[in-house]
Every structure is written in structure tokens, then in C-alpha cells.
Amino acid sequence: SEIGKQAVQRLNDLGVIIDVSQMSSKALEQVSQL
């Protein structure tokens, strides 16, 4: 979703490490493309 993309981008800007250990393969792929 657009809000999810904005949230991930903001977390990256803040230097937060996102825990992707519980994400599906599709979600992980989408996050890594941002």
C-alpha cells in the first residue's frame, strides 16, 4: 500500500532496521525494492 511504502521509506530515513524475519517472500521482495 502507499502508506506502507511511506512507512518503510521513513524508517529507512531514520536508520531503523526493519525486522523482515516474519515477512512473506513477496513482502520481503517489495520492501527490498524500496
Protein architecture, described:
There is one protein chain. This protein is mostly helical. It is built from two helices and no strands. It has helices at 2-14, 25-33. The model has no long low-confidence stretch (mean pLDDT 91).
Number of helices: 2
| Number of beta-strand segments | 0
Element order, helices and strands? HH
Beta-strand share of residues: under 5%
Radius of gyration (CA) equals 9 Å
What is the general shape? globular
Secondary structure class reads: mainly alpha
For the record, the count of structural domains works out to: 1
Percent of residues in helices comes to: 55-70%
- Mean pLDDT equals 91
The rounded distance between the terminal residues' Cα atoms is 12 Å
Low-confidence stretches: none
Major sheet description: none
Write the layout of secondary structure elements.
Blueprint (H helix, E strand, L loop, with lengths): L1 H13 L10 H9 L1
Short description:
The protein is mainly alpha-helical.
Salient structural properties:
globular; 65% helix; Renal dipeptidase family protein; 2 helices; 34 residues; metallodipeptidase activity; mainly alpha; Pept_M19
